[in-house]
User: Which sequence fits this backbone?
């Protein structure tokens, strides 16, 4: 199984072959309990060795993600509506989950064309937000502070912005760069001046991360700012490459996952410094970097227990949680890693066949209020890990 200018003050919650050994093999015990520290923009930038995953002991089903009209299934992208949408006639509401389907009713990989929404409470049912051919093969979703959801669509070879009323507000295409859009992240402008907000898209065909400057009314620009990520050129359902993009606005750091090399990389000064083509070139093993901004790149983690990770989320305490898609023992592991590379915890969230874990998003403002929502493709459900 497998545009608009936004104020710098906007809070964004952006929400996706195994090495022989990991960089940090031990899982240290965590000292201290849950903290209540308030956080700005919902993310603390400093290293935190408190494992949130260990605190989340309950799993509950939110609801099915199968489109009620055409039967699209196999959920990939997932985001959480963190604030009340602007305007008075929006179908999305604060606290909703938005999910896209990768497969069609016949379970053909990469043929899904629908985005659904539902309440983040248990027992919810999906409602179609939109169906459109431009959403074919939606692989990841992000959301901005206008509650416009942007999808990266591997089959349609584009990225599409959809409003909180389910209307397409922007279609981004570039035949030379958006070949197999896979991972994505929305980065808000820090200055309110061009190039404005950015949608960064990882391409699973070229191994590049393309910075799309959405601008302030002009035409978007497309720049392959990071290149060299490993890709496997897999068919839909087995694609691996750069994905699981996350951005921490507190310290201008971009994180990326590569399921081929089983690596997690951090790129410092992402918005402010990484804007030229090939600013950073990743080595073939995913661990070395060249290019004029190579100093801004850092390997965070590599190796076991990472095994074909695709999705990720950034927790309120700054830790990363990644979702594996490969495991010879049929496990679907979430893996929590601190930003200094310390392996904190891992948890099997589905005991069915491997490859069920796509789309992860964290909510909350402190350790004790954090929840992790995730798509389970074995069951076509959104589920939640909570205390």
Assistant:
């Amino acid at each position: 199984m497998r545009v608009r200018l936004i104020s710098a003050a906007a809070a964004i919650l952006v929400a996706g072959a195994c090495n022989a050994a990991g960089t940090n093999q031990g899982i240290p015990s965590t000292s201290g309990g849950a903290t209540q520290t308030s956080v700005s923009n919902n993310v603390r930038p400093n290293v935190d060795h408190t494992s949130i995953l260990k605190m989340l002991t309950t799993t509950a089903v939110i609801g099915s993600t199968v489109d009620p009209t055409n039967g699209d299934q196999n959920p990939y992208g997932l985001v959480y509506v963190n604030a009340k949408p602007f305007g008075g006639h929006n179908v999305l509401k604060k606290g909703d989950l938005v999910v896209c389907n990768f497969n069609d009713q016949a379970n053909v990989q990469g043929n899904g064309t629908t985005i659904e929404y539902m309440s983040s409470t248990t027992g919810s049912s999906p409602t179609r937000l939109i169906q459109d051919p431009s959403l074919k093969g939606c692989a990841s979703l992000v959301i901005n502070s206008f509650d416009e959801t942007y999808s990266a669509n591997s089959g349609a070879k584009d990225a599409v912005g959809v409003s909180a009323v389910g209307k397409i507000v922007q279609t981004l295409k570039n035949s030379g760069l958006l070949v197999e859009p896979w991972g994505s992240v929305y980065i808000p402008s820090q200055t309110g001046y061009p190039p404005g907000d950015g949608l960064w898209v990882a391409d699973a065909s070229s191994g590049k991360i393309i910075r799309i400057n959405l601008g302030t009314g002009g035409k978007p620009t497309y720049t392959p700012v990071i290149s060299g990520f490993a890709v496997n050129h897999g068919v839909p359902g087995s694609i691996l490459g750069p994905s699981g993009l996350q951005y921490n606005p507190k310290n201008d750091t971009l994180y990326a996952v590569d399921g081929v090399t089983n690596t997690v990389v951090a790129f410092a000064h992402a918005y402010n410094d990484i804007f030229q083509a090939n600013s950073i070139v990743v080595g073939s093993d995913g661990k070395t970097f060249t290019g004029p901004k190579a100093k801004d790149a850092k390997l965070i983690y590599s190796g076991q227990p990472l095994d074909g990770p695709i999705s990720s989320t950034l927790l309120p305490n700054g830790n990363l949680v990644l979702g594996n898609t490969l495991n010879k023992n049929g496990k679907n592991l979430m893996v929590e890693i601190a930003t200094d590379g310390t392996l904190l915890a891992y948890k099997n969230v589905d005991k069915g066949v491997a490859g069920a874990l796509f789309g992860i998003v964290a909510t909350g403002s402190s350790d004790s209020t954090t929840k992790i929502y995730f798509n389970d493709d074995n069951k076509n459900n959104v589920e939640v890990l909570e205390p």
Summary: Confidence is low (pLDDT under 50) at residues 2-40. The first strand starts at residue 58 and ends at 64. Residues 40-386 form a domain with the Neuraminidase fold (CATH 2.120.10.30).
